[in-house]
Design a protein that fits this description.
This protein has 295 residues and is α/β, with parallel strands linked by helices. The chain has two domains: 10-126, Rossmann fold, CATH 3.40.50; 148-294, Rossmann fold (3-Layer(aba) Sandwich). The chain is 35% helix and 24% strand. It is built from nine helices and 14 strands. The protein has helices at 19-30, 61-68, 79-92, 106-118, 161-170, 192-201, 218-229, 263-271, 281-294; strands spanning 10-14, 34-39, 47-50, 53-58, 72-75, 96-99, 124-126, 132-135, 139-142, 151-158, 176-181, 207-213, 234-239, 276-278. The strands form two sheets. The protein has a seven-stranded mixed sheet with strand order 3-4-2-1-5-6-7, with helices on both faces. Helix 7 links the parallel strand 12 and strand 13. Helix 6 (192-201) runs parallel beside helix 7 (218-229). The chain is globular and about 55 Å long.
């Protein structure tokens, strides 16, 4: 089992014919993802040879879905055009839209989120500014390296792309049901809480790793949710224990004001509801290792 993405997922790539889109389309295909088409209005009706696989290019997401049965779109378009691409995916009613692009204006993301809600929230949006998600051995929608881990029973939700990769690698002997990089922007389509609930409901996920970072209150809200709704073991890591107060660090959402949003405050909130929190990514992996060995 997995969350959001399975071996049967049919994936299209918005912006496939661009350099980044093509590079990662090749990687996704190589990892077993069912790539059924690309979307580029200027190249509609053509096909692209992707390492020996002929992939058709469609003019719109709706056309691609109609012709291929696609249910997942991965967005590799520049920030200025990301809103239009995401709105098109929502209008078409695709089940999952994964927005890899970084530098998307927060107002644009908020507009897409609100539009999706108004349309009945039929599309799950992951990102922007994220590495996407992977169900090892089944499908890979985004830029997560497919060769660093295997299928297993750990669920992973993370704000950080590189920490996603590190955690997957460190726990590669146990493997993952699904790993989801939700992105580090202040407004994102899918939250820690969304993933926690999905992992709770997935019978083949035995335990959950949650990676957060300084800034905002997402981790505190996740802690409150864990207390009320999650019965599976959860371990956590919060990036930014040594970050200086009041300074924006890396991700757009990682800004601390006073005691709110600090790594220490987030750690305390999580530990108060029984989540074991590591001081480093490796220490966090070790906490999960001990849990998995005891299951």
């Amino acid at each position: 089992m997995a969350i959001f993405l399975t071996e049967n997922s049919k994936v299209i790539v918005q912006g496939m014919t661009g350099s980044e889109g093509m590079k990662h389309t090749k990687r996704m295909l190589a990892s077993g993802t069912k790539i059924v088409g690309g979307v580029n209005p200027r190249k509609a009706g053509t096909t692209v040879d992707v390492d020996g696989v002929e992939v058709p290019v469609f003019g719109t997401v709706a056309e691609a879905m109609d012709k291929t049965g696609a249910d997942v779109s991965v967005v590799f378009v520049p920030p200025a055009f990301t809103k239009a691409a995401a709105l098109e995916a929502v209008d078409a009613g695709i089940a999952l839209c994964v927005i890899i692009t970084e530098g998307v204006p927060v107002h644009d993301t908020a507009e897409v989120w609100a539009y999706n809600q108004a349309k009945g929230a039929k599309t799950r949006i992951i990102g922007p500014n994220c590495p996407g998600l992977i169900t090892p051995g089944a499908s890979n929608a985004g830029i997560i390296p497919a060769t660093i881990t295997k299928a297993g029973k750990i669920g992973l939700v993370s704000k950080s792309g590189t920490l996603t990769y590190q955690m997957m690698y460190e726990l590669r002997d146990f493997g993952f049901s699904t790993a989801v990089g939700i992105g580090g922007d202040p407004v994102i389509g899918t939250t820690h809480i969304d993933c926690l609930q999905a992992f709770q409901d997935d019978p083949d996920t035995a335990a959950i790793v949650m990676i957060g970072e300084i800034g905002g209150d997402a981790e505190e809200r996740a802690a409150a949710y864990i207390k009320e709704h999650i019965t599976k073991p959860v371990v956590g890591y919060v990036a930014g224990f040594t970050a200086p107060e009041g300074k924006t660090m890396g991700h757009a959402g990682a800004i601390v004001s006073g005691s709110a949003g600090t790594a220490q405050a987030k750690q305390e909130a999580l530990e108060a509801v029984g989540v074991k929190v590591g001081k480093t990514p490796s220490a966090t992996a070790q906490l999960m290792r001990e849990i998995m060995q005891g299951l």
